[in-house]
Amino acid sequence: MRAQVQWAMGNRxxxxxxxxxxxxxxxxxxxxxxxxxxxxxxxKMAITEDNLFDIDAGILQKDAFIIIVRTLWNGSIVDxxxxxxxxxxxxxxxxxxxxxxxxxxxxxxFAIKSFWDNSKLQKPKAFIALGCVLRGDTPxxxxxxxxxxxxVVNLNLILPVPTIFGVLTVDNQQQADDxxxxxxxxxxxxxxxxxxxxxxxxxxxxxxx
Length: 209
Known about the structure:
By secondary structure, the chain is α/β, with parallel strands linked by helices. The protein has helices at 2-8, 19-25, 28-52, 75-91, 108-118, 140-158, 173-178, 187-207, and strands at 66-71, 97-102, 126-134, 163-170, 180-182, 185-186.
């Protein structure tokens, strides 16, 4: 990618502190090359997004019970993740879901395991974990990210249903905004689609397809 950008700009290295000066200094041919490269990257991102959201609604198990476990911590960010998640579930007429709120990201794995062990009437077909861990000034960020990641991985190994990882691990507010309806879409929507796809895969396994 670095080589492509250098080629597009006539072997000039990008200085993010002076983007306007850089653009103004490009001759028309190099500027056209740069714009073509950016359009190609956007096209590839759009294709990837379209493929992810391509799902056969006709084979979905509409009554599948889905549990969303979200955090209070960084609530304004997680609210957007939850809204995106529910938007997709409603879009595909998946009405049988429940939202459980826990204090922080490290409590997510416990809540999921406890719910599974203690649910009597109906078992979930999938869990969706939503949260946000923002980097601070101490190693606490690394410990929390590793803890919740390892916890979700372990859940996927010990439970017979999938747990979808929808926890943002970001350096700053801008990165969170970019992933909750901004430049990179909404991770909550992606998590909901992933849950539906995994439920469908489970159906195929059980049916012997």
